[in-house]
Amino acid sequence: MWLGPIAALAALMVVVLGVRYAGDSRPGMVDARIWAAVDGMGSPWRHVALATDFLGEPVGAATLVVATVTGCLLLRRPRAAVLVVVGAGMTVGTATLLKSLVGRTIHGADNLSYPSGHTAFLTTLALVVALLATGRLGLGRTAGTSLVLAAALVAGAAMGWAQVALGAHYPTDVLGGWCTALAVTPATAWLVDRMADRLVDRMVDAGRRERH
């Protein structure tokens, strides 16, 4: 897959946006225009936004992680199960660290907003599920990359819309969260694979020594 270059570009975007909005407490020009477009959301759509937002809250996120890990184990994909937990933890942890470093706020000095952790989390989960599906379906490089990016786009857009519609984040916070997931998840997947391969090699070597 072409996730390496995509991850690098995403990391660059995270840095650029972080530098641009460091210490800011107001929406930028793009933020203001998008906010104006979603202003006046009706009651039914607000309920949808709240339900989507819940998926990024501790209880909702934990439920999603447990369900996804269970599915991975049932499909006998322990590496994917590990990636779900480690990937989500690394992405959310990175987003939390970036919030402190960037210092952008919304609705008061105590509400750090960049990047959106909710968006980063759901995007990461979608990326892992898409990577699993790509392996199960035996998709090629182009088709697999397209599926992974499509899943990330759908998840990021859904959670991003909810965060903007609820006024919880600036649109650029959402973009930063999406890019954070695109940058961190492929690197985490590579790390999990390398560690798993080493563990398998050690087990094979240990088995050979026992036989001799």
Query: C-alpha Rg, in Å?
Result: 19 Å
What can be said about the biggest beta sheet?
none
Low-confidence stretches: none
Distance between the termini: 40 Å
The shape is elongated
How many distinct beta strands?
0
Total domain units: 1
Strand content: under 5%
Overall pLDDT: 90
Q: Count of DSSP helices?
A: 8
Helix content: over 70%
Task: Output the helix-strand order.
Answer: HHHHHHHH
Secondary-structure-based class equals: mainly alpha
Outline of this structure?
It is a multi-pass membrane protein. This protein has 212 residues and is mostly helical.
Describe the protein's architecture and organization.
- By secondary structure, the chain is mostly helical.
- The chain has one domain.
- Helix content is 80%, strand content 0%.
- The protein contains 8 helices and no strands.
- Helix 1 packs across helix 8.
- The model has no long low-confidence stretch (mean pLDDT 90).
- It comes from Streptomyces antimycoticus.
- GO terms for molecular function: hydrolase activity.
- It is found in: Cell membrane.
- This is Membrane protein.
- It holds the Pfam family PAP2.
